[in-house]
# Entry
Amino acid sequence: MKKRVLSGCRASGKLHLGNYLGGIKGMIELQNNPQYETFYMVANAHAITTPYSPKELKEDTIDVIIDYLSAGLDPEKSTLFIQSQVSEHFELAYYFSSIVSIARMQHLPTYKEKVKQYPQNNTMALLNYPVLMAADILVYKANLVPVGIDQEPHLEVAREIARKMNQLYGTNFPEPVRFSTPGEYIPSLKGEGKMSKSVEDSYINLTDSLDEIRKKIRSIPTATISGGPIKGGIKTLFLLAELFLRQTDYQKFKDQYHNGSLKFVTIKDVLAETIYQELKPFQEKRNQIAQNKDYLEKVIKQGAEKARAIASETLKEIKEKMGLM
# Structure
């Protein structure tokens, strides 16, 4: 039997370079492997755990679907769907919440970070974020989850829930593991933390122009002269260079840094041009797909139907084993 894969991106703005390298490239790799059955969602319900605009959320949700298709996800090979259109996720999350303690959720570092970032929005939805994520994964009995390393604490919650449900109710949930990619942690352009849509000026959008990319890369904080430890913005610059530049060019710039001859503007502009050239085919395809409204509606409708067909079977099984029907 094929192993199942579930992943998704939050609908909180256009996808950025970190989403592409840390998530979508792995999603495409698994999609094209005949050993796997792949389910990729737009996590729009997760997006309402922090402040948002309803109008922008609708637009962002469609944008993520367009980005998925433009990057190479194929609705003939993968089930592409919108989270809120599959109600089974939310019902299963409620059942899961009956076996998870409040203390366990409050202990998660991601929860603490979000409360610190949004002190006025410490809601039950935010606290239950990992429980819903577990339901997202386990409602399809997924084995693999291609997400960044920062999501590992949430995956551990999903594994704990799977084990406990199996012990208490005789279910057969797999314990999902993370599928990692070389770009699983893309650093912020600000020189600390990761590239994130929630941190202004920390990311490069997949739709950015060459001028926008150049401006953002040039803004990475570096020193006036090269040499010394590689840390902060300089570390960010070289991590991106390693991912995008040819190995010979990367090594040349690194050698120049260590011998003190590197001009930061040179490596920054070469990196910006290389990133833009990689994103250019994506951007051209995106412009075509965004104009084909009928195709988008068809993909969204069929994806929801395929996802619900499988999710409903899991939910029926769980309700029976929990004595709920």
Summary: The radius of gyration is 21 Å. The longest strand covers residues 3-10. The beta strands are 3-10, 36-43, 78-82, 144-145, 177-178.
